[in-house]
DNA sequence: CAAATGTCCAACTGTCTGGTTGGAATTCTT
DNA sequence: AAGAATTCCAACCAGACAGTTGGACATTTG
């Protein structure tokens, strides 16, 4: 059988997403990743160099996915509530990503950030779309567009970042499913831009 | 000299806050905590039982602090923007706390949550204050009060939870100090309740 | 003062982990 | 088909780490 290094790499990445999202860069076990991928762990060091670099590779792959799956065209910036809803939907379907981001945030300053340039450009693009929508009067202009983007991500992400807090906060709210959360989110973002 | 176990305990807690906030429950090193407190590490097991229980103790102590330092009277609920600003100020001054919360969030489901009852009561109190302000028409009533509380905490906390993302997002914003962030936060929260 | 209780600490242990290595098997090159 | 290069893997290693222990020392009690 021909070597299929691309597939082996992908198996490792897939297993690593799970492991890193669950346990973080510290707690992730290289042996577990290798076993889960059905590959010898030495492959990880051959292909990725170290555990930390594998983490970076995982993060970059996931960043590319989310960027591709939740686009924002100029027109869609007219209803940021719906945009927020779509971002929310993505994270509901792919809860790994925000956990990876949280792990990255917690080790911020101790290792360099993955794909910094691409991400900066990515955010700048969104901010520009927001600013354009404001300039054309399609959404309210009294909030700095970067802060608006911040607000959308904060309001989407907090559910996933501190689920234990949210659970305690929502203990008295009878109807607290994903749909209710999504509706509240969309409503609040619209209120920020009306 | 008389034994001062209370002081020893406090020294350990103080050292543990630092260590846990920095490295999380996984990454924290018991030896480092003990050394930093100038105490033998065996004390930790005598006083707190295990590393995980020490983490819980640390979290409970910090929860008590924040609850005491950022109160919300009925009248203050009239200006939630200012309330959010005060919460923001607290976290700027005590950046440990949100990190601890983030670590707790990431291990959610694997260990039980600290002080669950007290915290539920604490949040319920805030929600009730919000609801009262809404009922009396002092703030807008079209957002569920629990979701409003969620929004305040999300908008305050996200800066600290994913600092790396915020940095990239704000790369194009010339004036991005704590004051600018605070102002944007206050403005956005007011917009949610106007 | 003597027994009992509690505090402190240095040294130890069993286990786990990221990372390495030496060589066997497989594919590519010429 | 010979040899070079690459992929694979089992076994190994050195260090780190949470938690323990046994006993010295201090304090309280009666």
From TrEMBL, chains A, B:
SUPFAM superfamilies: Homeodomain-like (SSF46689), Tetracyclin repressor-like, C-terminal domain (SSF48498). Keywords: DNA-binding. It comes from the Bacteria. It comes from Streptosporangium fragile. This is TetR family transcriptional regulator. Residues 29-48 bind DNA. Residues 6-66 form the HTH tetR-type domain. InterPro entries: Homeodomain-like_sf, HTH-type_TetR-like_transc_reg, HTH_TetR, Sco4008_C, Tet_transcr_reg_TetR-rel_C_sf. Transmembrane segments: none annotated.
